[in-house]
Amino acid sequence: GDIMEETGALIRKRRATISTGKCVPLKQVNGRSEVDESVNGRSDSGNIVTKRNVSDLPSTTSKERKKRINVPSDRQSCHRLQESLLSSASGYRNYRGVLNWCVVMLCLTTVFCFSRYGILVDPIQVVSLFIKDPYNMPAACLVIVSNVFIVAALYTERRLSVGCFSERVGLLVHSINLSVTLCFPVTIVLMVKSITPVGGASALGVYTVLFLKLYSYKDVNKWCREMSHAKARSLARSLSCSSIPRSRESGQDYQVSYPGNVTLRDLYYFVFAPTLCYELNFPRSPRIRMSFLLRRLFEMLFFTQLLVGLTQQWMIPIIQSSMKPLEDMDLPMMMERLLRLAVPNHLLWLIFFYWFFHSSLNFIAELLQFGDREFYRDWWNSETITYFWQNWNIPVHKWCLRHFYKPLLKSGVSKWLGQSAVFLASAFFHEYLVSVPLKMLRPWAFMGMMAQLPLAWFVARFLRGNYGNAAVWLSLIIGQPIAVLMYVHDYYVLHYREGEY
Amino acid sequence: GDIMEETGALIRKRRATISTGKCVPLKQVNGRSEVDESVNGRSDSGNIVTKRNVSDLPSTTSKERKKRINVPSDRQSCHRLQESLLSSASGYRNYRGVLNWCVVMLCLTTVFCFSRYGILVDPIQVVSLFIKDPYNMPAACLVIVSNVFIVAALYTERRLSVGCFSERVGLLVHSINLSVTLCFPVTIVLMVKSITPVGGASALGVYTVLFLKLYSYKDVNKWCREMSHAKARSLARSLSCSSIPRSRESGQDYQVSYPGNVTLRDLYYFVFAPTLCYELNFPRSPRIRMSFLLRRLFEMLFFTQLLVGLTQQWMIPIIQSSMKPLEDMDLPMMMERLLRLAVPNHLLWLIFFYWFFHSSLNFIAELLQFGDREFYRDWWNSETITYFWQNWNIPVHKWCLRHFYKPLLKSGVSKWLGQSAVFLASAFFHEYLVSVPLKMLRPWAFMGMMAQLPLAWFVARFLRGNYGNAAVWLSLIIGQPIAVLMYVHDYYVLHYREGEY
């Protein structure tokens, strides 16, 4: 009796494993229940062939199987109730090949253009975007000076860790350091005449990233001190190396605990690592894969070429030709130019996304043996605007969640207000990175970001599934060039029209 | 002891089920084993968010969970060892959004073109492709005459079912009927001057489909007779309605068994049904979904417009401009024109594929409540040429497998020879459908199909994964326009150059 009960329990347990595991569920198709093979988007092509070929033969008992050679009746039934794969009802979602198709088409177009027009990139023009005078590079100097703020943050943390600074003094020093990190480059960019807009934007980008990193550094070190003060040292150690099997597996991987991490080497690793969230013990990849590194390097070079070529040959002519309609506020012509600008602008954005978030960040991560390569998630499938913003830029999203949204929630702010605050902060930084280098304060980037809130509400409320996804794509394709045209128009009016009068 | 053994066997069986089932395997990432969530391409976006948000919090015991509000240390570790989604190592394959992107881009381009150039389709030109003289429509007459062959096949089967014809006589009559089905339209198309190439190709297409359907009809009925002669009537009934739960579920769904199916109504249902393989009891969908039907109808109309517009505005100008280089055998110019032709030709083929295999066949199937909508499989992911040919056209593939390849194997032919024979037959029909309407016998279509065999060997031998997939795409993009240019050139030389001299 006992044995029976025990084995019965064992079977029930296994059954539970089966049902909670990610097995293919029995799916209701047209009111009838049947195992839907095609739903499984994960199995590779080879598997599908095998499976399908097997299912072509209807299941026969062993008795019937013997007769198969004589009685060919098992070939009679060769249809079964099912939806086409492209119907959304089929639930099929494996379109890796479509991505490859896009790559093949892009390469063919590039080859065709190069064979027809030759190499179109003008390198001197590119360099002149960044610097006006090779003996006077203020943007580069600005980036070099940023080391001061890194060292200041480390100094403050050192003092805090040994107790020389109280928490209050530490917070004050950090706040001053962080606000100077944001304000100092602004004054330089606005004051120095020889800084170009592109050079200024790059320098400001570096400072913004540094600001976010140092903010995270300050927060995490504070949490570590809070933990030690709570006299939960044992807990702290087990949490700081969260995945215990890792340290168990590879004995040589030593785990750093709190005061040991406040070193120059540790901080500079974090500054160069492709993440904005500080952690005492980052997951590390076991070795540098040379072939991976070289492929990413090749992609970086190829896509840089493509980005510059497309901008010079496609974007700039359209932008120049849309100045006249924009000045005259000629609405039909403006719409036409906007649609013409939308396609190259969107392609540039997509190539930029791949170039930065896949090629470049993976290249840096591989060099530094940084293990977490989640720089983006599947935003291309996003069916709501919110999902897109949560998944296209994971380093920033992670930072916002960890150092802004969750602390806000903890301080009693409502969920909706917290989300709006994140969008507001994001809008501020977008404006900061565009207005300051162009040396003109216009609200377009800010408004573009804030317009996402009602848009997100609208899409989530009225559109579902593939229609929602199409709406996200449309907002990307149409929304961006509007903002671009606005800034370009204002910049043009400010700098070139003045000369005319 | 016996009970232990039995339950032990049961557990082993369950374990086998788990390991062969489609559960997510423990995946080796960078040498460490961990359950990879991102692999699961099937879960929809919403699910991923939930799962990810949960995984943001490292797993904590209930003791620690209580302390979470006071000790914020669970926020410390926010990275884990993982690959980027676009890296092939991640195994992620859900790119439904990329397909939507293609649709959005296509619609935007169409809207842009229409808003700029107006509606470009010339309907009179389209009609004139099919008929020269509205009072003399030989292609339409040819299609109407095809009913004779359907009735002849039914008559033969009736005679066979009651025993008036012996199997031998039946085979002879069927063979005559089938060969006349193939040869009769050829003589008409070649003899009647007023048939246009497009009209002729359509009529021949109808006759080819009819030939394949009647061949299948003859085979299946023969199998049914073989079964009844084997005195296995009870077995026959259980097999003819292969999915037993269906008949059990809905009592009103009666299942036809052999001699009852030889009716005019049954045969005409099969003739119009979107399949080439006859079956006594087709799976039926429970009702006609009006919204589905209307969406497919809209797609059919929209894509017809697009197909005609693209051909008239994009294809024909390029083809006309490539006649001169082709005549002079100017190789660099020919290459350039080929590349220029490749993109519109490929887009047309893709739109045609969707228009025919998804919209049109689903529309017909919905009207006829035909249940099996598998008209294509995931050929866009194919990593070998063979996989592409096995999956892009399922009705033909199913027919070849059931009525040509498997009988060949059974008669002792080797697997490789059987595959080559299928390609040979396919090449014959491609040639048949192109050469006869153009009234010129050129080997390009035949050679194009036969060239797939060495190409398939090459791709399978040297290319894997995404590279194999890219090779399949390239062969589609480059291969087709070569054959198109060949025929167009020869047709042009034959019909227009003659007039010059």
Automatic annotation (TrEMBL), chains A, B:
Catalytic activity, reaction form: 2,3-di-(9Z)-octadecenoyl-sn-glycerol + (9Z)-octadecenoyl-CoA = 1,2,3-tri-(9Z-octadecenoyl)-glycerol + CoA; hexadecan-1-ol + hexadecanoyl-CoA = hexadecyl hexadecanoate + CoA; 1,2-di-(9Z-octadecenoyl)-glycerol + (9Z)-octadecenoate + H(+) = 1,2,3-tri-(9Z-octadecenoyl)-glycerol + H2O; 1,2-di-(9Z-octadecenoyl)-sn-glycerol + (9Z)-octadecenoyl-CoA = 1,2,3-tri-(9Z-octadecenoyl)-glycerol + CoA
Residue ranges, compositional bias (Polar residues): 40-61
Catalytic residues as annotated in Swiss-Prot or TrEMBL: H430
Family annotation (Pfam families): MBOAT (PF03062)
Source organism superkingdom: Eukaryota
Keywords: Acyltransferase, Endoplasmic reticulum, Membrane, Transferase, Transmembrane, Transmembrane helix
Pathway: Lipid metabolism; glycerolipid metabolism
Subcellular location field: Endoplasmic reticulum membrane
Listed GO CC annotations: endoplasmic reticulum membrane
Listed InterPro entries: Diacylglycerol_acylTrfase1 (IPR027251), MBOAT_fam (IPR004299), Oat_ACAT_DAG_ARE (IPR014371)
Any one GO biological process: triglyceride biosynthetic process
Transmembrane feature ranges: 98-117, 137-157, 169-192, 198-217, 297-319, 339-357, 416-438, 444-463, 470-488
Annotated GO MF terms: diacylglycerol O-acyltransferase activity; retinol O-fatty-acyltransferase activity
Chief localization: endoplasmic reticulum
Membrane topology label: Multi-pass membrane protein
Region Disordered, annotated ranges: 34-74
Quaternary structure and interacting proteins, as annotated: Homodimer or homotetramer; both forms have similar enzymatic activities.
Protein family per UniProt: Belongs to the membrane-bound acyltransferase family. Sterol o-acyltransferase subfamily.
Record-given protein name: O-acyltransferase
Gene that encodes the chain: DGAT1
